[in-house]
Design a protein that fits this description.
The chain has 619 residues and is of the alpha/beta class. Helix content is 54%, strand content 12%. Adenosine-5'-diphosphate binds at residues 378, 381, 383, 401, 403-409.
Amino acid sequence: MLKQRPYLIEFLTAAGLVLAPFVLPWLGFAPNTVNRILVWGLFGLGFDILFGFTGLLSFGQSAFYGTGGFVAAYLLTRAGFPYVALALVIGMIAAAATGYLIGLIALRRTGIYFAMITVAIAEVFFFVEFNPLSDFTGGENGLPGVPTPSFNLGFTTLHFTTGWSLYQFLALCYFIGVVIALRIVRSPVGAVFSAIRDNPLRATAVGHNIHGYKLTAFVIAAAYAGFAGGLLGVLQAFMPPDAFTFDTSGQLVMQTAIGGRGTLFGPLVGAAVWLSLQDFLQAALGLGAAWKLVLGVVFVLLVCFLRRGIIGGLADLYGLLTGQRGVREPDESEPEVVAVASTPHAAIAAAAPTPVRPRPAGSPSGPILQAKGLTKRYGGLLANSDIDFTVNHGELRGIIGPNGAGKSTFFKMLTCEVHPTSGTILFEGRDITGMNVTDVCQLGLTKSYQVNQLFAGLTVRENLVIAALSGLRGKFRLDLFRSIDSIPGLSERVQQTLELVNLTSRPDTPVSELAYGEKRRLEIGLALATSPSLLLLDEPLAGMSPRERVETVKLLKSISQGRTMIIIDHDMDALFELAERVTVLQEGRVLVEGTPEEIKNNSTVQEAYLGGVHGVLAA
Ligand code: ADP
């Protein structure tokens, strides 16, 4: 997420655009080159929201660039529509509508399959433009005669024709594009975009409808592409058929990677590098078509040595010089440091915060969760078999059992990550069997994961904001232009959660820089920030040193006040200290259930544990 210094970036952009015609000619930039850079930059603003912010790599943006471009050009040439700006907006709307329909199909898949679908879509659009629609698009001749804009102000008429005159119109369009893009990435929707990029699984689990948000990013990118496509026709006085070619999509991806993705200005900088290299190598050095060879080498070097592109590299350099460290890219290969004591014992003890929601007298009693006959079969294996399980409001239940007993599968069924083969789950009296994890989280049931599922490229506070947003805004809302800071109750909830998980001293630390114990607490914090009425914790003590375990048990005790929680853990001593009742699972079934004392003294449990699996439990 971009830092929220009000209007600084907008101001610098405006200043840069005003100064460009005075400075760039001295650097050898022709006005036509600058105008082309602006069109690519505008095209890339939407693409960066899709790729850089939401993590969806599309190779099909030429489809929307061409759609918007040809709709606008057709209106202005063949249909005799006189208003250039309005034609551009209509082209943009046509591209956005096309983007919506294509997104519905393409977003059914993720990763490489999504990218491959977008490649295919670009090819289909290229074919359609040249063949069935060639009467409208001019086929390989394109559409000549696209007019430039002029605005009648009553007392005078403004004409934007070519060169630096047209630049003024393009610069205004780019500026408006930047202002809108900044609003979007600073909005709650923009925060969810980043969450999807970093960890779609967790974004879903904390209650966001990620399909809806991905489609939103896709439509935004298509709209920007459509508007930029229209500007291409205006810039060249001709709508070229190559707007639809796959090369256009590829060039956009490469320019964004060169300039720096997730920066909004990366595509503009990338386009400046690309186009000036092209001019220099082709014209000045006379390399002809071989210029792409040099470009290829430059691209490989840049991607190898500046993973975050030119702007990312400059930001890192600035951070180094000023002693601030930028937010790092999530690094999947980075191993987690296990069992590093992170917080002084005294700090935890002193932190013991007051609970957010103490249970007032008269708060609901009776069962909050009832599972009946819950069974999960994986092929021939019964992971859970006919489990009956009830937890009351305000209870702290522990679940123990040897590895492979079916504990995690049981949690996954309760949170609707996996669906039971048979049986029902009632949450607060409502049948949630077969629902999805997002809806269940929205109802107030969520879990913290056994293996951390954090938003690794973001800071601690940004992580908690994303989780808290789902409770405050629901699973999907298009508040694209709303500032995150204006959401009532958000900062309070984030602050309360920071206190609860004892991370008040680290709110602005990137997740990648946290110690293991801190990450574990943030993992619990993410679940807590959704304000669940039933919180499940899957092995919260996993991977911790003995000292960290003691501290975390204290933390869990303080969190549990006024809440209903179910905790799975291998650490029996910790669980017996925490839980009011304990359920023992073995081979997918409930072996026994009772108070910690009853469990300790139960001969079946003793036999089960001392009779062979004790070592496993202690591991
Ligand atoms: P626990 O959490 O108690 O260690 P799990 O619920 O992870 O146990 O696993 C219970 C059993 O179900 C194990 O035998 C495991 O191999 C199997 N299992 C869990 N998930 C899957 C899956 N997705 N596909 C097939 N088998 C699975």
